[in-house]
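User: Some background: our group keeps a shared notebook of sequences we're curious about, and every so often someone picks one and asks for a predicted structure to add to the entry. Today it's my turn. The entry only has the sequence so far, pasted here. Could you supply the structure so I can complete it?
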Amino acid sequence: MVGRSLALGEAVLAAAIWASSFVGVKVALEHAGPLTVGGLRYFAAFLLFLPLLGRASPALAKGAWVRLTAIGIAQYTVGNAALFWALGRLPATAGSLSLALVPIMVVLFQVLWLRERPGGLALCGVALTVGGAVVFFSRDAGAGQATALAALGLAVVAFAVLPVLGRELARDRTVSTVPLTAIPLGIGGGVLLSLALAWEGVPRLPLSTWGVVAGLALVNTALAYLLFNHALQHLTATEANVILNLSPLGTAILAWYTLGERLTGWQIVAMATVLVGVVLVQVRRREGVP
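Assistant: Of course. Here's the predicted structure to add to the notebook entry:
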């Protein structure tokens, strides 16, 4: 129970940190392309782990390398490239709304791949969380462009890979938390940065934007993903991922507090619905997954 309580705290803290990511990314996108912002952020975070990686990474089995590579390509190369590209063409709320749909894919992949079946309360919690998030953001998301919306759909599928494969590796203690975080960042971030250099050229950013990228790499990436991956030792993929639906709500609250953007009555009700859903997903039967 102590480990599970710590894991819940880690996932909530990661969600709180990621609440500021959309703001930072939108600022960085004013001076660099989406591939460049993502590539710099993730590969820089990988470099931060290098002093720890050698001591924390014993020889890994081939299957572990396959899963770590899949996580890196799906989460950082495909998912975030698609999301960042879409954010350059759609409102930030549209990106938040797309991430609110990820738990649906996570539940499906969890059942098919991990054979961990969520209980009835958890499924109700997922439905409430997704429904509340859709109500909260749908009014301001806008129709957008068809191509950008398709990119968001691709991101939704890609972002479901980390919670599921990461849960498998963390649950079975196949890979410790540092390499589980760092190796996918190095693989996915490296591929993304290579594509950025080829497609968008060498970045020329003002000093302030470099500071934003550094903050995104250190706090919003290295620290937040380390917390989330460690939480997967005790939380199922669905339990951990649903907590992340608190993140876009945190973004909206931050915008309300700092920018004066008002929250409607329906949005307040939707926030309460999301919170209830998150709590229901965390309620386990005694025979539940450890």
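Suggested note for the entry: The chain has one domain: 2-282. The chain has 14 helices and no strands.
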